[in-house]
Amino acid sequence: MSDDPLPPPSPNPASGRTTAPTAAVIPAAGRGVRLGPGAPKALRALGGTPMLIHAVRAMAASRAVSLVVVVAPPDGAPEVKSLLDAHALPDRTDFLVVPGGESRQESVKLGLDALPPGYDIVLVHDAARPLVPVDTVDAVIEAVRDGAPAVVPALPLADTVKQVEPAGAPGEPEPVVATPDRSLLRAVQTPQGFDRATLVRAHETVKDDVTDDASMVEQLGLTVVTVPGHEEAFKVTRPLDLVLAEAVLARRRLNDGF
Ligand SMILES: Nc1ccn([C@@H]2O[C@H](COP(=O)(O)OP(=O)(O)OP(=O)(O)O)[C@@H](O)[C@H]2O)c(=O)n1
Ligand SMILES: C[C@](O)(CO)[C@H](O)COP(=O)(O)O
């Protein structure tokens, strides 16, 4: 990885590139408090390789993605640069590393600010979703290319959901106030895909703390559309998720014969 500024992308349809160069921003600056004590979550091992490297490879697996911007833990950019240098990544993809912020939203904004001109489609992908299949990534990009300003991969819910009155104190029972119609609800994943100008405007306009980028676009009054998500795009949040991720990876390695 060089520290030289990147030139704008040169679209080359003959090489499989699209006419709308696409970049992926990977927020990886979280601590991973819910996963428990240890290194920042994105740097923890999954199948012997940092989770972040899996997420970077998942983005770079799409032939449409020509730049990946990794948003590192605030004081971890040198370590992340070394990790990218130490792991095999596709030559056709460029990489940038920038330090992140206090919240996911701030980290994504810092990644967006670092994007060179010329990338018209931007994916935002959690480092904490290391196993998203390339078909899901490509489906998101395709929907943005087809004209949607914002696209999210989404899955139906397996559980019934209750709206509650928050407990007054930890451990107190929470009265249920409603049971939303589950058939109208979706659990959304990443990568979320955007027309770049829309995402930049959303981050400049919306100041509320939100948990995903698409909801900022919703606040602009624009329509966000879904594409089918994938069970293996789950987020590694709690310790059991890491057990599942190891199992999915082991099954993939068995199926791939290595
Ligand atoms: N200040 C932050 C907080 C989160 N993230 C990133 O946003 C993604 C989704 O966040 P989450 O799974 O909640 O990660 P953490 O914030 O690390 O988890 P926790 O809330 O358990 O601490 C992760 O890839 C995480 O690294 C980030 O870049 N900057
Ligand atoms: C962006 C996201 O992964 C979509 O499901 C999710 O909102 C991130 O939430 P977190 O609380 O920051 O993990």
Automatic annotation (TrEMBL):
InterPro entries: IspD, IspD/TarI, IspD/TarI_cytidylyltransf_bact, ISPD_synthase_CS, Nucleotide-diphossugar_trans. The lineage of its organism: Bacteria, Bacillati, Actinomycetota, Actinomycetes, Kitasatosporales. GO terms for molecular function: 2-C-methyl-D-erythritol 4-phosphate cytidylyltransferase activity. It catalyses: 2-C-methyl-D-erythritol 4-phosphate + CTP + H(+) = 4-CDP-2-C-methyl-D-erythritol + diphosphate. The record marks R34, K41 as: Transition state stabilizer. The record marks R182, K235 as: Positions MEP for the nucleophilic attack. The keyword Nucleotidyltransferase applies. Its EC number is 2.7.7.60. It comes from the Bacteria. Residues 1-12 have a biased composition (Pro residues). Keywords: Isoprene biosynthesis, Nucleotidyltransferase, Transferase. This is 2-C-methyl-D-erythritol 4-phosphate cytidylyltransferase. CDD domains: CDP-ME_synthetase. HAMAP family: IspD (MF_00108). Belongs to the IspD/TarI cytidylyltransferase family. IspD subfamily.
